[in-house]
Write a structure and sequence with these properties.
The chain is an alpha/beta fold and 393 residues long. The protein is built from twelve helices and twelve strands. The relative contact order is 0.17. Bound molecules: pyridoxal-5'-phosphate (PLP). Belongs to the class-I pyridoxal-phosphate-dependent aminotransferase family.
C-alpha cells in the first residue's frame, strides 16, 4: 500500500497538551478538576487592546499585510525594546509572527540539519527538542539545575559546545522552572561564545516582563558582541494575556532576517491584520495593566511556594520569574509523571510531570500559578490530603 501520510515520527507534541485534554475530558464528565497545568494568564486581554482589535476590523483592516508585519507595529516593537532593554534596534530587523513559537520554529528550521548539534535547555519548553529532532539535527540538552536556582550555567553550557554546534537556545525567565539567569552568568556565557563565532543564539524572552523580588531581566539584545548572530524572541501572549490572538515578534540579524521573511511568505503569509493593530495598542498603550498582572502573579507565587513547602516530602525553591513553580518531589518516592497522573485521576488536580520538559525534569512537577488564589489553595489542599494518604505507597 502506498504510504500517503508521511512519517512524522521525529516531530513531538507538547505532552502537557495530553494532560490538559484529559483534564478537560474529566471536567466534561462532571469531575471537579483544578487545573494548574495550563501555561497562560487567566486574566482577559486588557480592554483597550481588545477595542483596538475591534476598531481595526471596523476600519477595514481585512486584507493581507506585508509578511514581516505592518510598519507601525514593527516601530512599536523597536520602541518597546528601547524602553525595556535600552537597546536601539531598527524596525527593519523586527519581524511580526503568529506567536513566540513561530520564531523558534523558523530559527530551528534555519539551522537544524543532519550532522548539526543544537543546544537547548532541559527541562525546557518541549518544542525546542521536538523541532530540533524534526530537522534531523542532534538535540543536545543543557541541564538546568535546581542547585543553580534553575538558571543557565555558562560553564556547563560552554562545555557542551562541539565543532558541530550551530545554535544555542537560551530561555530566561524560564518555562517550566521559573528560573531567571543572573547577569553575571549571561556575561560569562556571552564572553565564552566569543570563541565560537559560528554559533547562532536564540534568546527566548517571552516571559521577560515577569520577574519578582526586584530581580531584573537581562536581555541578550543588550550584548553588542553577539548581536550579529542573535535572534530575540518575544511576543504578546504572556505579557498582555493574548495567547489566543497569536502575536509574537522577533529581531534578527540581516541574513537571518531575509531567510525568516522567506519562511513567513512560504507559510503563514502574515499575522491577522486586526491582531497587529491590537499589538500596537498593547505596546504603545498604558503599561499599568502589565504591572498589575505581575503583582497579582507575585501574590499567587507566595501562596503556591508556601503551600508546596508545607506538603509532605516536597520542597520548592522560590521561582524568580514567569508564572510556574517547579517543586522537587523526589522524597515522596513517586516518579513525577506517575504522580501527576495520580493527582489528576484521584485528587482532581492537573499538574505536569517534569519529564514532559526533558530528562532532567524527573523528580519535579510543574504547577502554573496563573490561576485564582482560591483554586491554588484548593489544589494544594487536595495535594496535601493525597500525599498524606499515599505516603509510603
Ligand atoms: N517560549 C516559551 C518558553 C513558552 O513557554 C511559550 C508558551 O508557553 C512560548 C515560547 C510560545 O508562546 P506563544 O504562545 O506566543 O507561541
Amino acid at each position: 500500500m502506498p504510504q500517503v501520510v508521511p512519517s512524522f515520527e521525529r516531530i513531538g507534541e507538547e505532552n502537557a497538551f495530553a494532560v490538559l485534554a484529559r483534564a478537560s475530558a474529566l471536567a466534561e464528565q462532571g469531575r471537579d478538576i483544578v487545573n494548574l497545568g495550563i501555561g497562560q494568564p487567566d486574566m482577559p486581554t486588557p480592554p483597550h487592546i481588545v477595542e483596538a482589535g475591534i476598531k481595526a476590523l471596523r476600519d477595514g483592516h481585512h486584507g493581507y499585510t506585508p509578511a514581516i508585519g505592518i510598519t507601525p507595529l514593527r516601530e512599536a516593537v523597536a520602541r518597546d525594546i528601547q524602553r525595556r532593554h535600552r537597546v536601539e534596534v531598527s524596525p527593519d530587523s523586527v519581524m511580526i509572527v503568529p506567536g513566540g513559537k513561530v520564531t523558534m520554529f523558523m530559527a530551528i528550521l534555519m539551522f537544524g540539519a543532519p550532522g548539526v548539534e543544537i543546544l537547548y535547555p532541559d527541562p525546557g519548553f518541549p518544542i525546542y527538542r521536538s523541532m530540533i529532532a524534526f530537522t534531523g539535527a542532534t538535540p543536545v540538552p543543557v541541564p538546568i539545575r535546581e542547585e543553580n536556582g534553575f538558571a543557565f550555567s555558562a560553564e556547563e553550557t560552554l562545555s557542551l559546545v562541539t565543532e558541530r554546534t550551530r545554535l544555542l537556545i537560551v530561555n530566561s525567565p524560564a518555562n517550566p522552572t521559573g528560573g531567571v539567569t543572573p547577569k553575571a552568568e549571561i556575561d560569562a556565557l556571552v564572553e565564552g561564545l566569543a570563541a565560537y563565532p559560528d554559533i547562532a543564539v536564540l534568546s527566548d524572552e517571552i516571559y521577560g516582563t515577569m520577574t519578582y523580588d526586584g530581580q531584573a531581566h537581562h536581555s541578550l539584545l543588550a550584548y553588542e558582541g553577539i548581536r550579529d548572530r542573535l535572534i530575540y524572541l518575544d511576543g504578546a501572549s504572556k505579557t498582555y494575556a493574548m495567547t489566543g490572538w497569536r502575536l509574537g515578534w522577533s529581531v534578527w540579524p540581516k541574513p537571518f532576517y531575509d531567510a525568516a521573511r522567506k519562511l513567513a511568505v512560504n507559510s503563514h503569509s502574515c499575522v491577522n491584520a486586526a491582531t497587529q493593530w491590537a499589538g500596537i495598542a498593547a505596546l504603545d498603550g498604558p503599561q499599568d495593566c502589565v504591572a498589575a498582572m505581575v503583582a497579582e502573579f507575585d501574590r499567587r507565587r507566595s501562596l503556591v511556594v508556601e503551600g508546596l513547602n508545607a506538603l509532605p516530602n516536597v520542597s520548592c525553591i522560590t521561582p524568580k520569574g514567569a508564572f510556574y513553580a517547579f517543586p522537587n518531589i523526589t522524597e515522596t518516592g513517586w516518579r513525577a509523571k506517575t504522580l501527576a497522573k495520580a493527582l489528576l485521576e484521584e485528587a482532581g488536580v492537573a499538574v505536569i510531570g517534569g519529564p514532559d520538559f526533558g530528562v532532567y525534569g524527573e523528580g519535579y512537577l510543574r504547577l502554573s500559578y496563573a490561576n485564582s488564589p482560591e483554586n491554588i489553595t484548593r489544589a494544594l489542599e487536595r495535594m496535601k490530603t493525597f500525599l498524606a494518604r499515599t505516603s509510603g505507597h
